[in-house]
Design brief:
405 residues; alpha+beta; Ubiquitin-like (UB roll); 17 strands; 27% strand; globular; multifunctional enzyme; EC 2.3.1.1; ArgJ-like_dom_sf; EC 2.3.1.35; arginine biosynthesis
């Protein structure tokens, strides 16, 4: 596997992109992204579990059932969520405009929106923005699409990876956005990936669904699951590898690369949590079942009290044990060991759920890092799982106290 630095979506053959300002956001900030495959492609998607699904989610859920998908268009600034029949009409009008601009079928289009809930799309700006975005499509490498989908994100989130399958070079490139309203089972996050791998739509869907379970569904910033979440992967099959139509060795290689891309994008989202000062990784080891490992990791990474302690560089391990206790995981709470780790070192602070005599100053120094790992050994089996999140700071309240202003 090879990470291709400074390359983005249109590094994939026959993928054109643009990221432009439509005027929806203030100060001419980029707010509309177009991703287009020059050749026929298939797509797979995983969508929010929130019952209050936004109009673009409803429409894209229907369109992704079709075999071919050639375009993804994303606007930021307005979510088009909780907008009723007008919102649905605006979504359909958006799709119709894209269809005319790119000369493709309406059913071959995925639309995504992110931003303020409850506001109608300013359609005059959106329509003109789509026309501009489609005219601006380019093969020239650019992070403009990743910039255009940001809301409260503080940095662009993008990664491109190469691997060899069947003697052919396959590429997976992805961009994502997400900072707040982030919780397992998807959140205010969008992730869009493109690839040239030759794979059936059915196997692409299976690979993505399974990958999302171990990546995006294992992150949390604040416990809120949004109305607009989507992860979509578009494959135009131009790598010329033997088609992947079953779970063979080629599929396993592709899935490994897909997981790598999604883990890295998921970690970027967790690291960029609103007001966050550090990325937190929770590694649960030696659980009885994989389900228990995941439940334990999620429970700790979601614990607001644990997140607050980490913000204060406080080794308040009791909050970790507490979170394990209500996780509904199958575990023995009397057998837990806890380690804290960062680039500054590693130290064991709990053995068999009892505090060890550790150096408080050393632990505080380890915690005072931009990336902190909590290692939790359940000593009950051989299953492992990881989850990612961030600390909870004063700034989280400040940001969300004035989100609409």
């Amino acid at each position: 596997m090879k990470i291709i630095k400074d390359k983005s979506l249109n590094y994939v053959p026959h993928i054109l992109t643009s990221g432009i300002s439509s005027g929806v956001k203030r100060k001419n900030k980029k707010d509309l992204c177009v991703i287009y495959s020059e050749v026929e492609a298939v797509a797979a998607g995983v969508f929010t579990t929130n019952k209050a699904k936004a109009a673009p989610v409803i429409l894209s859920l229907e369109n992704i059932k079709n075999y071919n998908t050639q375009a993804i268009v994303i606007n930021s600034g307005v979510a088009n969520a909780c907008t009723g029949e007008i919102g649905l009409k605006n979504g359909k009008d958006t799709i119709e405009c894209i269809s005319k601009c790119l000369n493709i079928k309406k059913e071959e289009i995925i639309i995504e929106s992110t931003g303020i809930i409850g506001k109608q799309l300013p359609m005059e700006l959106i329509i003109e923005g789509i026309k501009k975005g489609c005219k601006s499509l380019s093969k020239e490498n650019s992070l403009d699409p990743a910039e255009a989908i940001k809301t409260t994100d503080t940095f662009v989130k993008a990664i491109t990876v190469e691997e060899e399958i069947d003697g052919k070079t396959i590429i997976i490139s992805g961009i994502a956005k997400g900072s707040g309203m982030i919780h397992p089972n998807m959140a205010t996050m969008l992730s869009n990936l493109v690839t040239n791998v030759n794979i059936t739509k059915e196997m692409l869907q299976k690979a993505l669904k399974d990958s999302v379970e171990d990546t995006y569904n294992m992150i949390s910033v604040d416990g809120d699951t949004s109305t607009n979440d989507m992860v979509v992967v578009l494959s135009n099959k131009t790598a010329n590898n033997k088609i992947i139509d079953c779970e063979n060795e080629d599929y396993k290689i592709f899935k490994k690369v897909l997981d790598y891309v999604n883990v890295n994008l998921a970690k970027m989202i967790a690291k960029d949590g609103e007001g966050a000062t550090k990325l937190v990784e929770v590694n649960v080891e030696n659980a009885k079942t994989i389900e228990s490992a995941k439940k334990s990791a999620k429970s700790v990474v979601c614990s607001n009290l644990t997140k607050c302690a980490l913000f204060g560089n406080d080794a308040n391990w009791g909050r970790i044990i507490c979170a394990l206790g209500y996780s509904k995981a199958e575990l023995d709470v009397e057998k837990v060991d806890v380690y804290i780790k960062s680039l500054k070192g590693k130290i064991k602070i709990v053995e068999d759920s009892v505090e060890l005599n550790f150096d408080e100053d050393k632990v505080k120094d380890i915690l005072n890092s931009k990336e902190v790992i909590l290692i939790i050994d359940l000593k009950s089996g051989d299953k492992n799982a990881s989850a990612w999140g961030c600390d909870l700071s004063y700034d989280y309240v400040k940001i969300n106290g004035s989100y609409r202003s």
